[in-house]
Amino acid sequence: MLGSTLFVDKSRDRVRPVVNLFLDELEEIDQYSWASGTLAWLYRCLGQASRAGARGVAGCLTLLQCWIYEYFPGFRPSHFEPPVVGPDEAWASRWIGQPATGSVADPSVRLAFYRRALDSLTPADVFWTPFHQRPHLEVRRSLYTGVIRLADIGEFYDPARCLRQFGYRQMIPPPPSRPQRADRPEAPGGYVIRIPESFDAAWDALLSHMVHIDMYSQPWRTYPYETTADYLDWFVAHSHCRVLRDDGDADRLVDSAAVRFDH
């Protein structure tokens, strides 16, 4: 469960020694926040995988894949309507045994193909609130803002940057928190993010370290991807809005391949 599902790395059948420390006191297992630890480890693995020298990705990819299916219907398995799960069933079980979405014959163009598919998305192609119209009403800690951690691995969690997933209009978020040290070289092996342990105190002081969303923004009124008037200009100025270059090379690669992609 720990080494092959939640905290997967690239060592196949090995487990990070620090994970075993969580099992020293079995009676305390149910007191750990396994969800935030899993998410912190996935965030770190995605950061490492973003380096130019990376050759793979680790982390709980079951969580990542199910997140993709829930928010991006166009990437779901073809011709499949996920069933309703019971209160005692894992939400991800909706996707058990389903084949991947379509296929791209040539691996050399597969990445370019999916990048173009991402660039073709419109806001209406996203299911912004798949779990609940106001998910923070069900899970209050989802509005926590601060550090989530797995032992020595710390990552920032900031729901103010994705308010539409909580059923609210997106507005310009406050500046992100900065780590004590951040080294992100081309080789993922040298990837280091250090966050002072003093930041961890926020976890136990939820009321003072959460987005008070009702004061921060307003529920969307016309459509679920609504933003404030100034947000999109800010987003374009601070983000990479497209994945592919605009020189047409990727399009030529994709169009030259025999592509099958059934939505």
Automatic annotation (TrEMBL):
Ranges for domain Aminotransferase-like plant mobile: 1-235
GO biological process, alphabetically ordered: meristem maintenance
Where would one find the signal peptide in this protein?
none
**InterPro entries (UniProt xref):** AminoTfrase-like_pln_mobile, MAIN-like
Kindly provide the name given to this protein in its UniProt entry.
Answer: Aminotransferase-like plant mobile domain-containing protein
Pfam families named among the record's database cross-references: PMD
